[in-house]
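Q: I'm a student working through a structural biology exercise. My instructor gave each of us a protein and asked us to get a predicted structure, then write a short paragraph describing it. Mine is Beta-glucosidase. I'm not confident about reading structure output yet, so if you can add a plain explanation after the tokens, that would really help. Here is the sequence I was given:
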Amino acid sequence: MTTSSTDATRLPRFPADFAWGASTAAYQIEGAADEDGKGASIWDTFVRRPGAVRDGHTGDVACDHHHRFDEDVTLMRRLGLDAYRFSVSWPRILPTGAGKVEPRGLDFYDRLVDALLDAGIEPTPTLFHWDLPQALEDEGGWLNRETVDRFAQYAAVVAERLGDRVKRWITLNEPFVHMSFGYGFGVHAPGRALMLDALPVAHHQLLAHGLATAALRATVAGGQILIANNCTPVRLHSDAQQDKDVAAASAYDALHNRLFNDPLLLGSYPDLSAYGMTDPSWGGVVRDGDLATIAAPLDGLGVNYYNPTWVTAPADPAAALPFDLTEPAEPYERTAFDWPVVPDGLTELLTGLKARYGEDLPPVWITENGCSQPAGLHDQARIEYLAGHIAAVARAMSRGVDVRGYFTWSLLDNFEWAEGYHQRFGLVEVDFATRRRTPRASFEWYRDLIASQRS
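A: Happy to help. First, here is the predicted structure for Beta-glucosidase. I'll explain a few features afterward.
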């Protein structure tokens, strides 16, 4: 099940019920930052910190999706999508994170869901894609266990409004990235640089997932509940393996992958204390009953994949982390973000998940996969990227991995976090001066792929 061609009709044949989709996130596309009673998020605050975002860009307007969603749904219909993954803005629904509900926020997502259904596209909302209400961050954010209960209450509010029409839900997006970039290294909102003291953020996000799962199941009849984890195969810098490098790879795998998959699927955390990354009790953060809540049965595991991670043993034995991130020795092609293009890493990742979790692994959904490329409509490099990674999914399926759908990142060029508008991931080019949308060659290619899979 391989292909050496980017001809969409020559890619492997997927099951008839395989879902083809695209993904976005609220802060990255919506705009309308202070309209209809929306409260401030941590990103509304962070972008105003001098030097936090390249060239001082903000998501105040972004793609103006809040006002132009009908146009975007028309594009999705042209594309032939089976499903659309978007995120709900927590502070648009609960401006202070709890308490009084803002009905205009719910009304917006009500209209969006109806437009998607009218277009024959299944709405797949993510409840948290990093835009925590600033009011909750002021009380400690994800370091504060009370945020867990606030998230469950928010999930119940959204499910009560949309659950009669929305059946597939994603609780959190990439809790590893939010913990590490937002609280560990400070390069994303809320901009805290706590290093390993950020670990409680991991537990509180996963516990919030568990409580939200219970809230969704209590409200949505026949609902499917997923979480979207950023996963990466961990590779050594070179074939010259030393015990200390193998140990470093194991430590990174425990922190990036197993910390967020093991409790969901096995009901336990990896022993981070074996790598010196925390004490065995997590300082009392993990309480009796928490792991049972986190390990509530899932209907699917969302996997976001971009590239493998290469590691070596730390150059400084006294370093805070038991690994150093490094570059591959191989000369891979690179995206505009300078990320290596490694399609076989996705096959490796998926088959590795199956090998580790066996029957405990639920059906998998590729909830993000895509690449930044230079501006312009003739994006052959993106087509080659997508073709290679979709073929990689097919190879994993041929080896027994149950993959149910593929969502490319992203439908639109958007606000790319600390990079502002300098990275372009969209099948659709957005002119950020006029917000004009223009489909790229990759849009037409993906449309042809979806059509060929249905013929």
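A: Here are two points you could use in your paragraph. The two ends are 19 Å apart (CA to CA). The chain has a mean pLDDT of 96. It's a good idea to check both against the output above yourself.
Q: Great, thank you!
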